[in-house]
Fold this protein.
Amino acid sequence: MATLLSPERVTTPEPPISPIPPLTPIPPLTPIPVKPGLPLLGDLLAFTSDPLGFLQKTPNSYADLVAIRMLGGLFYQVNHPHLIEQVLVTQSQHFIKDKGLKVMGRPVFGDGLLSSDGDFWLRHRRMAQPAFHRQRIAAYADYMTAYAAETLAGWRDGEERDLYHDMMQLTLRIVAKTLFDVEENAEVDEIGDCLDAIMWRFDNQSVRAMVEQATGWTVPTPALKRYHRSVQRLDEIVDNVIAQRRHSHEDKGDLLGMLLAARDDDGNGMSDTQLRDECKTMFLAGHETTALTLSWTWWLLWQNPEAAAKLRSELDTVLQGRVPTLADVPQLPYTDRVVRESMRLMPPAWTIVREATADVELANETGLRYCLPKGYDVVISQYAVHRDGRWYPNPERFDPDRWTPEFNKSLPKYAYFPFGGGPRLCIGQQFAMMEAILILAMIGQRYELDLVPGQRIEPQPSITMRPKYGMKMRVRARM
Ligand code: HEM
């Protein structure tokens, strides 16, 4: 028998009907301005004659997002920190590494961390990450200073040195020892020579390289032959390093050991080709950028003697002539600012390029919406953004003192990104900062460096930003 309180008779009070909020209209997409260029060539000649100046000038004449015509196609340049954050971080799932890198980079670095994408990249990133944990990196500090001391022992008071060459050799030795336990100088030097010949192919200032990137066509030249020989030789050397380690069965606890021991969820390790790709990538990515940071820093310090004097004063006060250790790094705030400011003005990685894998909507700070179409490349230039007067007062001036904690706090997040950002953030950031500070300190303690008169200094934007004619410096001993 149903009671008065049978469930079917219990009624819950109706919620009050709230008025439907008025729909806020979604603003229509804003068309992205297209920079006019020559028919077919687009801006090829303007870009190749001065890639850095070209990318720096575009935002002034156009907007924070602009389409640039090139060889019958288009690419998009993104210039505002807010939009950059969307490409690198919040919408990073819709972007992969660009075609140019794949055309030029794959034949050398295969599917190494720099050039791979998706699950494959993620798996390998996870395998490599432990080699870059803070504690492990701390263990590398003594090698960094020991190798720097060895380099400096070869310098004579008053002599001319190619600083860029010395720094490349030093940082390659450090990477070879810390990540691969390779310490044979002749072998390391040969790796350096091969990488140098290989980098020729990435020169963004040559029409040849741009056409190759866009089409994959090559013209057989002696430089191309040297490139092919170097790719082959580098493979042989790296294969040999891997084979020796496999044979020794020794666990040295370094990156190579971790990559050899790593297994995925199915228990599979890396194939020989995958291992070789990762090792070559690390050899390249792990030395050139830090060597460039150090070279450009000394060039900037030579132009700014007051900053150089301030650096020496900090080093003398804090270190009192001792070799710096990891524990000294936090005690050297001015040295840190010098490195930071150097990477602002002369970022070794001067652009980041991505390809959109879907139509991606970006919104600027005022709510304007843009659509980056699927399949197109997006270029973000550290060089251009780091010199933008909206974020940096007196942007062309080398001023380490600008990096106060307050300035740091007020700076939009992606107005400074020498190491990139988001999931593809440089894996070696901490390694590089520690290395740059320790080596800068060791050189600054012992030497003053002057640019050799008549030496032409011009940045050459390749994958990295190199000094085109080297960097000859006269070294004067301080003690
Ligand atoms: C001053 C020195 C350095 C600078 C300025 C630098 C800069 C960068 C930048 C901008 C990226 C991101 C590229 C992109 O998003 O497309 C990157 C990635 C990478 N860097 Fe560095 N780097 C430096 C030192 C190092 C060192 C010392 C190592 C290794 C020992 C290293 C290894 C790598 C690797 C493997 C990647 C690819 C990471 C991934 O995609 O998972 N870098 N670096």
